[in-house]
Amino acid sequence: xxxxxxxxxxxxxxxxxxxxxxxxxxxxxxxxxxxxxxxxxxxxxxxxxxxxxxxxxxxxxxxxxxxxxxxxxxxxxxxxxxxxxxxxxxxxxxxxxxxxxxxxxxxxxxxxxxxxxxxxxxxxxxxxxxxxxxxxxxxxxxxxxxxxxxxxxxxxxxxxxxxxxxxxxxxxxxxxxxxxxxxxxxxxxxxxx
Length: 193
Hints:
71% of the residues lie in helices and 2% in strands. It is mainly α. Helix 1 packs across helix 2 and helix 2 packs across helix 6. It is globular, with a radius of gyration of 17 Å.
């Protein structure tokens, strides 16, 4: 019984650490005219999904969004409050949850490899987030979907760099500290050795 309680404690600690990482990565922002800033927070979302998996990764993102909803300045540029969920970046924020889920499903769907991690970061951290973000941004700004999608291309080079960084960091952490990935990863490392 105490072992399962300590597992829950470890899971909560991992979720809190990655939520804090997402918040810290939002401290530096580059504002854009369309109302959606360039930030490193997506890197945190990619890392949360890749390291924590499909269950805990989305929980870390959800924790950040709950903190934002209650008014804490945890989003890019120190934003918080319910108003951010009615702004142009609202779809991207909701997309983070599903992006972390997809990343976790792909990365943890088998043995954690560089190609699986890179695919997860691009599919979940870019494509899924854009699928939620672009339509909501167009709706909020009252613009057509095509021009909004074209304007989102400004994010693509940075997001591809973040996906590469998330892949490298995930694999380095996997080698250096497999316990960060949870009990399954520790057992897989032990059986591989």
